[in-house]
Amino acid sequence: MEKNIVLICKEVEQSQELIDYLTLQGIHIDVSNYSDFDFSNEIKNYDAMILNGVGTEIDQLFEKILKINQDHPILTFVIKDIPSNTMRIAFLKFGIDIIYPESFKIDELYIQMENIFKKCNPPKKYTIKERTNDLELNPDNRSIIFNKNECMLTMLEYNLMNLLSENENKALTYEDIYSHLWNANSGVHKYRISNLIFHLRKKIKTISGDNHYLKTVNSTGYMLVNKNGI
Which ranges carry the OmpR/PhoB-type domain (predicted)? Predict the structure, then answer.
């Protein structure tokens, strides 16, 4: 399941088993906490959001979720024991899609998520709309194609590939890339970009047999090159 999911929790340790499981299923998952995550700007990069360990910040969280669903609706899952039916109804009315008890089964959560994504985004046949050298990008289903071999990309992977293709043979700095993908002008996390490039190279090699399309520009960033320029 090629999806981008953000997991927001108080402590990474309490969610490590879930993180490891979803990662093994091919999901790109970013982890943040309630105080650091920029709900207004970063949420657009994700297909779903998981909230684990919701506590006293629930009132402020409700306001943020309402705003998110107005501007950028996103599937939202909460992991929390909520004994009160009234409170459960309140969670759902504020835009939470599914509530899991803290004793939830990880494999059940994953299967439910997979089923929801399939129903929300049923497979279709698409016409290629964008081309970058030998590679083709399909914005309708966020895929990359080489000689009719197709590979699905996550939202972040597609956005990065599209940015690089718009600047083909031009080196983009880490700052340029981070600002474009995460709407942040400070606190550039190079490891996030490197991780995306790593997964993109693997996927491109799977369909083309070549992983030299994405070139590392030492101490600067990355660029997409024509094979003739390699």
Answer: 127-226
Measured distance CA(57)–CA(55) in Å, rounded: 5
Same domain, 18 and 57: yes
Does residue 126 surpass a pLDDT of 80? no
- 110 and 16 both lie in a single domain: yes
Q: Which domain holds residue 63?
A: 4-120
pLDDT digits (tens, 9 = 90+) for 26-49: 888 888 887 788 777 777 778 888
Chain centroid, CA 30 distance in Å: 7
Strand 75-79 and strand 221-224: the pairing is unpaired
Q: What is the pLDDT of residues 194-212, one digit of tens each?
A: 988 998 998 888 888 876 7
Amino acid at 123: P
| 137, two tokens | 């990008």
60 and 79 inside one domain: yes
Question: Which of these three, 58, 91, 120, is where a domain ends?
Answer: 120
Strands (E), 26-176: 28-32, 48-52, 75-79, 98-100, 130-132, 135-138, 143-146, 149-152, 172-173
Give the CATH number, domain containing residue 37: 3.40.50.2300
Q: Which of 159, 133, 125, 158 is nearest to 144 (CA)?
A: 158
Residues 158 and 69 in one domain: no
Give the predicted TM-score (pTM) of the model. Answer: 0.60
pLDDT at 75: 86
Cβ count near 221 (within 10 Å): 20
Backbone angles phi, psi at 31, to 5 degrees: -120, 135
